[in-house]
């Protein structure tokens, strides 16, 4: 992702260059229209559909005491996702322009390194934010250490405000990544792997949100995002030139990556194979949001396990690639050492030969000085 620098010349209005350069300002103005709509009674109801989480359920205890408001999923969530996708575009533009662009200019990175640096810079704050916030929700909801809450009381069609908002923001983040490919002028060879990543996240998170498997998904995402935060931090350190620190942290990430894959598989198997089948309401009932049927459980479990296996396979291939690069980097250095050694030996031999030649010449000179030249000596003998 190249850094977005505003050129001195003003691009024509509504041209591609104008939209790309000023997309943060344009989208922030659209968001402000919705927020201003909350201030007026005539438009507040429409604006609140886009800004506030919808499908709330209010209950009272014994007709007097109000219970905490719960939320379910529904069609109005598309409006909320649309608004917060635009909000993520604004946040992305602010972080890119005021943080990562300044850092990359100071580091004076090449185009390739700058693209990788900005890609990790986009994902690092997101992963860190959702890992920390998700861990806070897990503790407050009591999913740890009481792990049976992941399946007890299913269907979990009623969520707290924080849990629903957590999933809304996540879905909207991955939705906003698609227009960002245009705003950041992504190259053709970069588009396919990025789109594949975005679709994978969207499919898993959206399916868990609609099938009411939010609790186990939350725990899995927290573990996954924590490790991804470390990876992108290491990647940025390595690109910044701090290879020694990155190398030592890389081994920590290697161990944590393997542990994370096993942890996610363990949580999935415990929930879909052990916990949910033991409930009394095991079966399919779409009206109440109950998707606790064997085909859905097995499909969900298989999808998660296959995804972890695919990530593990990519990880192994990545490690083999690094190992080969180290070996190939070490082999030329050995060749250079042998070349240097042979060069030193040849220089030594040359020096010895020169020394012998010089000593012979010196002896000849001494002989000429004391006894005259050999030709003169020969003439003297003849005479």
TrEMBL record:
Its membrane topology: Multi-pass membrane protein
Biased composition (Basic and acidic residues): 344-354
Biased composition (Acidic residues): 355-366
Keyword entries, A-Z: Membrane, Protein transport, Transmembrane, Transmembrane helix, Transport
Keyword Translocase (UniProt): no
Signal peptide limits: none
Ranges that cross the membrane: 20-40, 81-100, 121-139, 215-237, 249-276, 296-316
A GO CC annotation given for this chain: endoplasmic reticulum membrane
Compartments, record wording: Membrane
Pfam annotation, one family: TRAM_LAG1_CLN8
A GO BP entry: SRP-dependent cotranslational protein targeting to membrane, translocation
Family matches, as InterPro entries: TLC-dom, Translocation_assoc_membrane
Region Disordered, annotated ranges: 330-383
Keyword Metal-binding among record annotations: no
Similarity remark: Belongs to the TRAM family.
UniProt-recorded name of the protein: TLC domain-containing protein
């Amino acid at each position: 992702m190249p850094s977005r620098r505003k050129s001195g010349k003003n691009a024509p209005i509504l041209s591609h260059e104008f939209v790309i350069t000023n997309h943060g300002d344009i989208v922030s103005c659209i968001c402000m229209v919705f927020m201003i709509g909350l201030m007026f009674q005539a438009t507040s109801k429409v604006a609140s559909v886009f800004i506030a989480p919808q499908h709330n359920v209010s209950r009272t205890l014994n007709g007097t005491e109000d219970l905490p408001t719960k939320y379910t999923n529904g069609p109005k969530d598309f409006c909320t996702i649309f608004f917060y996708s635009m909000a993520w575009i604004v946040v992305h533009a602010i972080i890119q322009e005021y943080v990562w662009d300044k850092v990359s200019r100071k580091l004076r990175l090449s185009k390739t390194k700058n693209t990788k640096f900005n890609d990790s810079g986009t994902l690092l704050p997101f992963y860190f934010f959702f890992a920390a916030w998700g861990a806070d929700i897990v503790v407050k909801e009591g999913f740890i250490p009481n792990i049976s809450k992941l399946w007890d009381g299913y269907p979990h069609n009623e969520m707290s405000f924080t849990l629903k908002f957590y999933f809304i923001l996540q879905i909207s983040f991955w939705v906003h990544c698609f227009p960002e490919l245009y705003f950041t002028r992504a190259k053709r060879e970069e588009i396919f792997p990025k789109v594949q990543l975005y679709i994978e996240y969207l499919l898993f998170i959206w399916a868990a949100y609609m099938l009411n498997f939010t609790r186990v998904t939350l725990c899995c995402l927290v573990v996954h995002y924590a490790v991804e935060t470390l990876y992108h931090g290491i990647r940025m350190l390595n690109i910044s030139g701090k290879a020694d620190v990155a190398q030592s942290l890389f081994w920590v990430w290697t161990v944590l990556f393997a542990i994370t894959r096993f942890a996610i598989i363990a949580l999935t198997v415990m929930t879909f194979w052990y916990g949910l089948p033991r409930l009394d309401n095991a079966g399919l009932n779409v009206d109440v949001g109950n998707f606790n049927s064997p085909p859905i459980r097995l499909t969900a479990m298989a999808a998660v396990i296959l995804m972890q296996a695919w990530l593990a396979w990519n990880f192994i291939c990545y490690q083999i690639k690094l190992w080969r690069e180290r070996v190939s980097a070490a082999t030329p250095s050995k060749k250079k050492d042998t070349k240097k050694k042979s060069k030193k030996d040849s220089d030594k031999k040359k020096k010895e030969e020169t020394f012998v030649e010089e000593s012979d010449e010196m002896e000849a000179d001494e002989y000429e000085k004391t006894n005259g030249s050999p030709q003169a000596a020969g003439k003297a003998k003849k005479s």
